[in-house]
Model the fold of this input.
Amino acid sequence: MNDENRHMLVVSNRLPAAVDQDSDGNWKVFPSSGGLVTAMAPVMRRNGGTWIGWPGCPKDAPAEELLREHSEQERFTLKPVPVSEDEVAKYYRGFSNQTIWPLFHDLLGYCEFDADQWETYCEVNRRFAEVTAEAIQGSSPVWVHDYQLLLVGRYLRELGVQNDIDFFLHIPFPSSDLIRRLPWRREIMYALMDYDHIGFQTRHDYRNFMQSVRMFVEDTRVHSKRNHSFVLHNERTIELGIYPISIDFKEFDSGARSQEVADSAWYFRENLRSDKLVLGLDRLDYTKGIPERFLAFERALEKYPELRGHLALIQVVVPSRVTVPQYQGLKEQLDQLAGRINGRFSTDRWIPIHYMFRHLNRNQLLGYYKASEIALITPLRDGMNLVAKEYCAASIENNGVLILSEFAGAADQLAQGALMVNPYDLERAADAIFAAYIMDDEEKTRRMKALRSEVRRNDVHKWLRQFMEKETRRHRPSQT
Ligand code: GDG
Done:
């Protein structure tokens, strides 16, 4: 990476820290979690730069000042974009999370199409572009992230920004047949043509995108070379690439070796009183397939009675988007399902599902990974799923078993070592749980070694390098 690229300008909906009030009503900065933060924070700490995003607080909170102080402790600068409560309701909870999110995860039934929310989405994207344009230094590239900010590139161009603008989509890109349903499909597809470089998690997403370009954008030509594709449109060239995101393997591996994590793993095992544990860990989200997972576990207990009393499911659900009605409904559904299944199978000594709705600190997270013989990661659709990769990185004794949905982006890299399932197929998912339970040590080790080696070789730093190499290549004079 050259010097210029070291000052990266990252733009994402949320900053990696939130400004909120503590129990005494004082405004403070709290670190936030999530897939994007897990991937980008180590990269920013290493390379420096500026991160632009919404700090999660009302417009009148002292975000600017607190984040300036916080930036001094981090190795990069955090710059807030102010967003009002009404705008959050429309652009974030509304258009981003009730239109784009379900549509891009193939869940059309959850979608709302509301013109007012779309207008606000455009306005807030424009504001993100304004704050970004002010923060640009020289010719450093701008890297916009994810589905809440699809239009930022377009507005930056309108503001006269000529710098390279990259975009990475963390979630899936759906088939053109789904994009067709979107009333603003042309606006979005044309706005994406203002980026210089667009990255996707999987080949499937990339192919879907190309299909939509052909269907909705006029006057395009496509050039595909061995590992790159270029869309030529309006005398501009947009480079497309596939970059499966990953984790900082070393950080998870060494964290899992610490005494604190060993203590927390021991504590969980002591308290859960089950011979073996199977773990689910997700943000509260209907895309993560948690009700289906509970039902698959119930089916496993029905079909394989030898599991009863010996295998317990720990499901940690991390609060997320709780003000969106569909997420509240999901929470109620989970409460009921866990209650029903526990009522049906619990004994004096054993509870089948330990269901927690809470945040975990880092040692607890690693402690759960380490304490669990099996991870059951069964999203209905997922851009990547970093939890799957983290579980492997934390399985330092090579003895964990990963059960993974074929609809997670991570399946492209982890299918060889994981037991793959279709999360809608409860019967086979139940069989996979049993197969993981009885798997012999030799097979466990063989599979987990392959998984760990894959995640180690393709970590988040390699993801960044590959994404940024495209960037630098464009500036290199032709070698011919
Ligand atoms: C999006 C895409 C894509 C979760 N709870 C806690 C916690 N986490 C961390 C996990 C993991 C991350 O959050 C979740 O990442 P995922 O990839 O599983 O899912 P999304 O949040 O939906 O992320 C996804 C990702 O972006 C990256 O591109 O993989 O497909 O949907 O790192 O460890 N961390 C801590 N406490 C928690 O309670 N400390």
In short: Confidence is low (pLDDT under 50) at residues 1-5, 476-480. Residues 33-36, 38-39, 170-171, 245, 283, 318, 359-360, 362, 365, 382-387, 390 surround GDP-alpha-D-glucose (CB under 6 Å). The two ends are 22 Å apart (CA to CA).
